[in-house]
Structure formats: structure tokens, C-alpha cells
Amino acid sequence: MAIIVSREAYDKTIKTYINANIAKYKFYYIFFSIQLVLFVSNLFVSNLPYLFLNENQILYIYSTSAQVIAGLYGLTLTGYIFFNDKLSKLAENDESYYDVVEKLKGQYFRQIIVLGIGCILGIVMSLLTLNSLFNINSQNMYSFILNQTMITVLTEIVSIVLFSWSMANPRSIEKANQSLLRDNKYSREQKGNLEEFLKNYNSIENNIILLGEKFNFKEIVYNNYSNKNRRNFKPNIMSSLKILGSLNVIDEDLSNEINELRKYRNSIVHSDKPSVSKDAVEKTKSINMIINAIVSKYKKI
DSSP string of 57-112? Predict the structure, then answer.
């Protein structure tokens, strides 16, 4: 059966998708755009050198540059591992931070990979520059290599500094939470009753966890999702949903709806001005009725 979607709804969906991807990969767009601009500029500037270096200066500067970016990346990687561990502990101590923490950890991991690639590229280009010192006869060509290597090294250093500032930003969790709140599917135009929303959601969460524990007592392998293993840490409700879904106690669509509500609820409680949409309140009300019916069904088992 064909589904008819209005032009306005389609355009809004496409716009939301594009904005979400731009926000998600903004760091990479900026990083590679700057590199492209500098590369093109170097094609023209290398023919007009304004700074001349002798052999000893070239050997010293470019060998030192490789060591500098390798050392900086090593220190940054150490700080990243320490900070990543602190984020994990935050989620363990307060499950409502789980999605914010996962978002930040994913963001920082992607950035540290890009920085690692930049570090390797800078070292390789530095070695290539040193190796080409006596092997390239064209002055313009060697000038281009010198400039491009230094551009790569300086870009890597600046990127490492910006990444360090990003991790040290005391508002990083708040900004990540605002981003999650913007990305939710619930309308922000009509305000609902926050107290009713939280009451319904808490009832849903408690019943889901109780059902999960009930089936756990029937020798379902619940330890695979235990919070004792930090690498596999997940909030109790997510672990319970996974168990109940695998047993067809609840279907996949309902599980996804509950998980979306969980993310929305956590973003709401950590926002500066908590407010909830009317459709989210209605959704919790309807799901709460469904979960209560499921609980009643399995109560005597």
C-alpha cells in the first residue's frame, strides 16, 4: 500500500536529516575543507618562496616536527583514555547520563582516529621531505613538498589543541544533551504535563525491569547484560528490553518506542528548562497501558 507524504513533510524530513549529518560531522568537514584550501594555496605559493632554509635547518626542523606531533598525539591519547573512563563511570553512577555519555564517547573516538591519521601522515611526509632533500632537482617541486609537510604538521598541532579544549570544556555534557533533545522526534510546539509524563514513564520503566527480573529468575542468561561488566554497561531498562524482545514478550516496535522515550526523558531531566511535548505525554500514557496489560498477563506465571 502506497504511503502519501505531503511536500512540506518530505522537505522537513530531508532538511532535518541534512542538518543532523552536518552537526554530526562538522569537525571533519571543517578539518578537510581547511586542508583542501591550504593545498590549493600551496600550489601557487610554492612558486614564490619568501623564506629560504639551508640543509641543516631543513634536517632539524622537519625531524623535530615529526617528533613533536608524535609526542603531542601520545599525550592526547593518554588524556582521551583517562577522560573516556571518567565518562563511563559517570554513566554507571547515573543511568540517565548513558545516552549523553555514549554520544560524547563516539564523537571523541571519531576525532581521535582522525588525529591519529593526521599524525601518521605528518610523520610520513616529514620523512619523505628529509629523504627527498638530495633526490629532487626541481626547486619548485621541493618547495611544494616542504610547504605541504609543514601545513600538515601545523594543522595536526592545531587540531590536537582544539580537541583538547573540546574534552576540557565543562559544558560538553550540557551541549551533547541539547543536541540529543533537538534530535528527538517529539514536537516542541505543544507543551504537555511534565509531572504526568514522568509518572507514566517511571511506571513503564519499573514494570519493564520487573518483567526482565521475572524472566531472569527462569534461568534466562541475564548476566550477559550485567552492569558489573563496564565494557558492556547498559541501563537496566535497556537490558530488560533486550531480554523481553528476544522472548517475544514485547515486539520490536514497542521496544524502540520505549527506548526513544527513555532517551527523551533523560534529555528532559538534564535540560536547563525541563518541558515536555504533548504528544510525548500521550505516548507514555498509551504505552503504560500496554505494559500494564503485559504485566497482568504474566503475573501468574
Answer: HHHHHHHHHHHHHHHHHHHHHHHHHHHHHHHHHHHHH-GGGHHHHHHHHHHHHHHH
Mean pLDDT of 90-110: 88
**DSSP assignment, residue 132?**
T
Phi-psi region of 235 (alpha: psi -120 to 50; beta: other; left: phi over 0): beta
Has residue 267 got a pLDDT over 50? yes
Alpha helices for the chain (secondary structure H): 7-24, 26-45, 55-93, 98-131, 139-168, 172-183, 194-216, 236-246, 252-269, 278-298
- Distance, in Å, from the CA atom of 156 to the CA atom of 59, rounded to the nearest integer, reads 20
Answer for the pair 236, 95: CB distance below 8 angstroms, yes or no: yes
* Neighbouring-strand partners of residue 191: 277
Residue 244, CA atoms < 13 Å, CB-side half-sphere:
28
